[in-house]
Fold this protein.
Amino acid sequence: MKLEEKLVLLRKQRGLTQLELAEKINVSRQAVSRWESGETTPSRENLKALSGLYCVTIDSMLNGDEQGVERMEKQEKFVVLRKRNMLIVILAIAAVLGTGKAFHMTMTVITMCLWTAIMGLIVLLIWSIWKKEG
């Protein structure tokens, strides 16, 4: 796999746009585009920043270490599955709590809607935090 192909793969695995990547490593979006098209190669400093961001070695990016990229792919899939499973657990707990409240308390329609909205906001908050970390 060529360097430019790896750069595209690693960026997309992180869920970043070219602009977001450029902002993270303090370069222009056009520079990222040129790297990914094979027009130019990142400088030593930029390779160091990319390897840190993507958690791969510079050697694996430059010398075709496919195993390093494959490990990265497996690690990313594991993180996504772990986050998804945690979200499912949180939703299940929220559902149980919500159901328990509904059965044990006389709740008005407004209270039920409010409870549902609060649980939805909590889930969105957790999801957005995980998205920023990933």
Remarks:
- Residues 64 and 83 are 30 Å apart (CA to CA).
- The two ends are 24 Å apart (CA to CA).
